[in-house]
Amino acid sequence: MILDYIKAFFIFKRPPKREAFLDRARWIPLFIVFSSLFPTPGLQAKSPPKELPLSVSIQSLVKEEAKYDGRRIVVAGRIQSIFMKRGRLGMPFLEIHLVEDGAANISENPTVTVISLKVQRVRPGDKILVQGAYHISGKKAGRFLEHYIDAEIIVPDHS
User: Fold this and answer.
1) I need a surface site. Which of 23, 42, 129, 153 has the fewest CB within 10 A?
2) What is the per-residue pLDDT for 128?
3) Where are the domains of the chain?
4) Three-class SS string for the chain?
5) Does residue 18 register a pLDDT over 80?
6) Average of pLDDT values for 124-147?
7) Residue 19's pLDDT is what?
8) Is residue 39 pLDDT above 70, yes or no?
């Protein structure tokens, strides 16, 4: 009778038999390879297509700002002033104030603020083209800003 208890004890303590078919560690690489052969469109990360930027003058941007809020635009103008500032975490960014090119009196013309996280080689008085998203209000570089263009590209305008 004691011998039966000992046998029963060793039956439960003995490790289970490992069969190659049921071994999970061998199936994980096969699952990865198989799942990569048949990709499902719902699981693939896709970025939404970007809309084409609208070419806008600074005066129409200031007059109809709600129309362009959050949209990608292209603006041409002359740099009135440029400031190198630091964001909340100490990262440098440029704050550029643009005026309409060919304006008779610069002080009366509307200006638009351009924020660029990339430091550009531009100076006050240069003519530039700016492509980016216009925002009535938002947060950029750790600061709350109003009426600005988040610049994607800034290029000199040689026309």
Assistant:
1) 42
2) 93
3) 2-37, 54-156
4) CHHHHHHHHHHHHCCCCCCCCCCHHHHHHHHHHHHHHCCCCCCCCCCCCCCCCEEECHHHHHHCHHHHCCCEEEEEEEEEEEEEEECCCCCEEEEEEEECCCCCCCCCCCEEEEEECCCCCCCCCCEEEEEEEEEEEEEECCEEEEEEEEEEEEEECCC
5) no
6) 90
7) 56
8) no
pLDDT digits (tens, 9 = 90+) for 98-115: 998 776 555 578 899 999
**CATH architecture assignment, domain 54-156:** Beta Barrel (2.40)
Question: Beta strand 111-116 with 127-140: parallel, antiparallel or unpaired?
Answer: unpaired
Kindly list the distances between the CA atom of residue 55 and the CA atoms of 50, 51, 64, 92, 132, in Å, as whole numbers in the listed order: 15, 12, 14, 28, 11
**Average of per-residue pLDDT across 57-61:** 91
Structure tokens at 111: 């200006």
Q: How many CB atoms lie within 10 A of CB 145?
A: 16
Nearest to 130 by CA among 105, 96, 104: 96
Q: 0.85 exceeded by the pTM?
A: no
Q: Phi then psi for 80, rounded to 5 degrees?
A: -85, -45
